[in-house]
Structures are given as structure tokens and as C-alpha cells.
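pinging the channel bc i need a second pair of eyes. not urgent but kinda urgent?? the chain im working w is below, pasted from the shared doc
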Amino acid sequence: MSKKQHDAALEALDRFKIELPSWGFADTGTRFGKFFQDAAASTTEEKLHDAGLVHELTGACPTVAVHVLWDFDEPGNPDSAAATKKLAKKHGVKIGCINPNVFQDQQYKLGSFCSPDANARKDAMKHTMDSIALGKAVGSKSMAMWLADGTNYPGQDNLRRRFNDLKKAVRKMHDKMVKDWKGSTLLIEYKPFEPAFYHTDIPDWGASLLLCQHAGKNAKVLVDTGHHLPGCNIEQIVALLLNEGRLGGFHFNDRKYADDDLTLGSIDPYAVFRIFNEIAQFEFDTGKKPGGAAIDYMVDQSHNLKPKLEAMVQTVCEAQKLFAKAYLVDRAALAEAQSAGDIVGAETLLKNAFDADVTPVLKAWRKQHGLPADPLRELRRSNVVARLGKERARARAERGEVASASYA
């Protein structure tokens, strides 16, 4: 590793901020059951406390994504926004991406913005407008829309009617954000299946891109690394969206089969590296500084076996490691190999960067910022998970709760 590569990786890490999900600290599960953890967060303050602890250990997570129905006492009340914002500040973080919830209420069983029920569509829009107001009030910069909308059987509904209603909805929310929430970005997520199994209304990046183009310039695609069919070339999607100026951000997780919400890099770290490589290549090609692509990096993991805090620190550290490796690629040599049609040489440059040990870079960066050299080891050494488990189990018992508050 040359000094130039070392310094580029350090510079990139300075700009690499990873947003944590409030729901990733709470008890979650599958359709078949949940396994509760004593140390899991069951209140908004506990979630923000845990996010603050991860930021304290890693120095890379200053903001927390929130779900409106789960993290605000009264979503339509401005005082609720102030209370959540104050709690975040107390724990050394800020409120990040706002996530409306238009999937858990019974009225959304046939969809939200795509529902054949006009009342469901109306209520979904009201909730979204309330969420926009909350985002502005807490000082957030983005709102992410993930819809569970879809159908289970052929003929169940008119696919074109559903998508056209959705186009109208995203245009309306985008225009409201431009007018009332200056500088904010509408992020539109996609997913090929689940909970709908015949079709989903935003099944892939193409549908998301179409909606963004219809909505307006402040709408961008949100790529969840678990939301793709097997074998999908995610880094190509990333490259094309970067090229068109429509890559808004990521939800980081990993999977073996489908949307498994596993910790980043636990299954295929080379795939994550390849994504970061396309981002680093884009920055190089467009003259941006390392880490300067202006992308929202967020975590979206919520599986229920690993201790929540440890899993989150694992993902952040793995993301930093793989991100740093992408800045070790010799871009000039890569361009030369590509121009000469040297396939083996070009691939070897990527593999050498992926195989490189970036521990010295990470240690140097953490030392510069007064952070533990190994955040995960520091967390485990502190025994904080066990301590929080005892405190929170006792607090839940005093509140008369049998188990942790949880969200499917």
C-alpha cells in the first residue's frame, strides 16, 4: 500500500458517514416467531442511547433513521418532533432519514398509495404529509418511502392503475417537500417480493427510477442490498444510477437467499467491495474527492439472534473496512489495463485491493479521532450489553411488560 493510497483511504473515511436504524436496536423477528433479548431497546430513548453508543465507539454514525409510528409519540404533533430531537441530542446523535409507515395498519391490506380503496390512499397521503412536517421539524434531510404494496394473485387488481396512482402520489409528496422542506431528498426504495408474492408495485430499480423521474429532481433511488433477485448485478445498478444522478443512498445488509437482513459482509464481502469500487470509480472519473459522492449510507438490519449492539458495530466496522479497500485500487493502472483489453490484469487490480490488509489505515483513522482501535472488542470488553440487559429487563418488569417491545 503506497502512501498515496493510504492517504486517499483516510480521506474517504473522513467523509464516510453511516446512518443507523432505530428499529435495528429493538426486538424483531420473522413471520414465524421472535426471540427476545434482554438488552434490546424497547423505547425510543433506549434506541437513541444505543445509536449514540455505536457512534461513540466508531465515530462514523452521527445520525439515526427513524420510523414515524415507532419513534414519535404523536406523529401529527410538533411537540413530538421536538421531544424526539431532544432525546437524540442527549445521546450525541441527530435524527436522520424519516420513514413513514403505510404498511402495518389493517386498512393497508390491499396496499397504500396503490390500494383500490380511495380512503386508504387518502390516509396514506395524510400520514406522509405529517411525516414531511416531522422531517422538517427535527432537521432531517431525507424521507424514504418503502411500500408493501402489491398483489398475491393474477387478476387481483389493475397493475397499470396501481402504478399510475403511485406516480401521482410521489409527485405530490415531492412537490410538498420542495415547497416546505428545503434541501430535502425523497428516497424511493424497491423490492421484488414480500409481503406481496405475485407482484410488488415497486419491484426493481427501474420502477423506482421511473417514479423518481416523474416526481422531480429531488427524488432519488434507494438501494437496499438485500432487495434483489439472486444473481442480480447490484454494482451495475449502482454505476448506472450514479451516471444518471439518481443514486440517493443505500440500506446496508447482507443475505443468502432473499431479504435476510444479515450483518453487512457476513455472506459476501466481495459483493460489498464491488459496490464501493463503483462509487470510488465514479468519484475518480468525475474529479470528486475520495468519499465525496454525496450518497446517504444507511444500515437496515434487524435480525433477532446476534446481540443488537454487537451486530450494529460489526456492520459499521465491516463497511469501513470494505469502503477503505475500494480506495486502494490504482485507477490509472486499471484504466490502462482496461484500454489494453487486459482482463486478467484489470481483475487482479481489484482483487489485490480487496485482499489488502487495511487494518493500519483503520487504526490510524481511529487514532486521529480518539476512537478505540477495535470498536467491537472494546464493546465486548466493556460488558455493556450484559449491564443493559439487566437494567432493561428490570425496567420492563416495572412497567408490567412481559417481553421487549417489538416490531415485525
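so The first strand starts at residue 18 and ends at 21. and Residues 3-398 form a domain with the TIM Barrel fold (CATH 3.20.20.150). — does that match what u expected or am i reading it wrong
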